[in-house]
Write a structure and sequence with these properties.
Blueprint: H1 2-10, H2 12-26, H3 31-51, E1 55-60, E2 70-75, H4 82-90, H5 92-97, H6 100-117, H7 120-130, H8 137-147, H9 154-169, H10 174-187, H11 197-212, H12 225-251, H13 260-265, H14 270-292, H15 313-316, H16 318-337, H17 345-355, H18 358-376, H19 379-393, H20 398-413, H21 419-436, H22 441-454, H23 465-473, H24 485-513
Antiparallel strand pairs: 1-2
Organism: Crassaminicella thermophila
InterPro entries: AbgT
Keywords: Membrane, Transmembrane, Transmembrane helix
């Protein structure tokens, strides 16, 4: 371990820099307080700018393709007036309940809660990892970790913990397993082969920002799915490469002796295996059922013209389709393994699944008011038009503009770790701004997700860094060994940089080839 100690000393200045970021970041208020403050700022700005007579003039496109764009003048609306406050109070409850992300995240979490609370995800992860050859463990741990966001934040903790235990059992350095597992689950949080609660949550915010500005474009939870599938493969490779080429050399690693007792503790039981098989059968049958209702001409999930794209019952009803998928698969597994003994257990498990988003339900109250008032004040239009004009004056093409936004997201993520909170702030500004430059809300959301995901693991404000430190302390080989925030962040930095480069490069390739980033979703307006 001498080599690791020496390397840590070289990172003293960097650790001090990170500590400085931690001090500054800790001064930021809770997201709830932050949105209350932003709401107050919007109210004051609307009053001042309205009194100053601030306006903006631009060419607004018509919904009728045959009509030419018309000049439109928008003025700032004073919200601190009878005309501004009366609708606010009259529609207070409606604004909160009708907040797009609220319904989406609650519905998705009710469904995902069934596969999480019954133990299906946990068993599937262990089955996947333990069934892999030792030389493939890093890659398998990475791909499982990336897809672990299906279990929301719990996936980060589980993947790091199982990574440490598994590597120790295989005779390898358990710290390497902890680091690579956490890096994959947290840094790859936005990628997945399937659709997770994150997709629904961010899409709901995007929908709110787009509809608030009258932007007609797809905003369903699948708008980034094609890209995320490819990103899962790329980030798996990147995680494996960084782990084997850097982390193992830095921390030291070997494959001396396997600890069969530890392996035995995490082995999937026969009952769990039976449950997984039954769940797989249920999943296949459900998919076949959906295909029967989709493939035939003029079938249920097609629109009245017999098409699926751009709009149909399939694209508009993707949330309930996913909900029933998770619900059926979860209930099937739960019944087989005995977690669900009667119908009374089902609502209890769904309730536990919903508890994971209680904090968001609280933050959504001031956030919904902020989004509503921000839109009503017309400040979104003022910012979007002026921002678009400024970006146009820089003569930036699509790629430089996207890269600038990604970098902005990575920087903000160091101080505000909540992905939904950041997007609630940035979405209403950048969705309309990018739309005015011909870039779709789906692309704007994707660029944001890349920046947000890449720096999750190096944010000193991350709730999970203390968890990683605790896990690393469990495998201390020297009592004098110190594991702190600087230790974790220094180990995560190579992953963060590699993720940012890989995600961005993949997006550039996607952009140049003009590939669809989701079902019926283009990068352009």
């Amino acid at each position: 371990m001498g080599k690791a100690v020496k390397s840590n000393k070289k990172n003293t200045r960097f650790s001090k820099f990170i500590k400085g970021i931690e001090i500054v970041g800790n001064k930021l208020p809770h997201p709830f307080t932050l949105f209350v403050g932003l709401t107050v700022i919007v109210l004051i700005l609307s009053f001042i700018l309205a009194k100053l007579g601030v306006t903006v003039t631009y060419l607004a496109a018509s919904k009728n393709a045959t009509e030419a764009p018309k000049e439109k003048i928008v003025v700032v609306k004073n919200l601190l007036s009878y005309a501004g406050m009366r609708p606010f109070f009259e529609n207070f409850v409606k604004t909160y309940v009708g907040f797009a992300p609220l319904g989406l995240i609650m519905t998705m979490m009710l469904g995902i809660g069934m596969v999480e609370q019954t133990g299906l995800i946990n068993a599937f992860m262990r089955k996947t990892i333990l069934g892999a050859p030792s030389y493939m463990v890093t890659a398998v741990l990475a791909i499982v970790g990336i897809n672990a966001n299906l279990a929301s934040d719990a996936g980060m903790i589980f993947t790091a913990a199982i990574g440490g235990a598994l590597f120790k059992a295989l005779g390898r350095n358990p710290k390497v397993g902890i680091v690579s597992g956490f890096a994959a689950a947290s840094g790859g949080f936005t990628a997945n082969f399937l659709i997770a609660g994150t997709d629904a949550l961010l899409a709901g915010i995007t929908e709110s920002a787009a509809k608030g500005m009258g932007i007609e474009a797809p905003t369903h939870p699948l708008i980034n799915w094609y890209f995320m599938i490819a990103a899962t493969v790329v980030i798996t490779f990147v995680t494996t490469f960084v782990t084997e080429r850097f982390t193992t050399k830095f921390l030291g690693d070997s494959t001396d002796e396997k600890d069969q007792s530890i392996l035995q503790q995490h082995t999937v039981t026969e009952l769990e295996t039976k449950g997984l098989r039954s769940a797989a059968v249920a999943a296949v049958l459900y998919i076949i059922f959906i295909l029967i209702l989709t493939v035939p001409e003029f079938s249920f999930f097609r629109n009245e013209e017999g098409n699926i794209l751009p709009k149909s019952t399939l694209t508009k009803g993707i949330v309930p389709i996913l909900f029933f998928f998770f619900f059926i698969v979860g209930v099937t597994y739960g019944k087989v393994v005995g977690v669900i003994k009667s119908e009374k257990d089902i609502p209890k498990l769904m309730q536990k699944g919903l508890s994971g988003c209680l904090s968001f339900l609280v933050v959504a109250l001031p956030a919904s008011m902020f989004v509503y008032l921000f839109k009503e004040s017309n400040l979104t239009t003022i910012l979007a038009v002026n921002g678009a004009e400024f970006l146009k004056s820089l003569n930036l093409g699509g790629i430089p503009l996207i890269i600038m936004f990604i970098i902005l997201s990575t920087f903000i993520n160091l101080f505000l770790t909540s992905g939904s909170a950041k997007w609630l702030i940035l979405g209403p500004i950048f969705v309309p701004m990018f739309a005015m430059l011909g870039l779709s809300p789906a692309l704007t959301q994707l660029a944001y997700r890349i920046g947000d995901s890449s720096t999750n693991i190096i944010s000193p404000l991350s709730y999970y860094i203390p968890v990683v430190i605790g896990l690393m302390d469990q495998y201390k080989t020297n009592e004098d060994e110190q594991n702190g925030i600087g230790t974790v962040i220094s180990l995560m930095m190579p992953y963060s940089i590699a993720y940012l480069i890989a995600f961005t490069a993949l997006l550039i390739i996607w952009y140049l080839l003009k590939l669809s980033i989701g079902p019926g979703v283009s990068m352009f307006m």
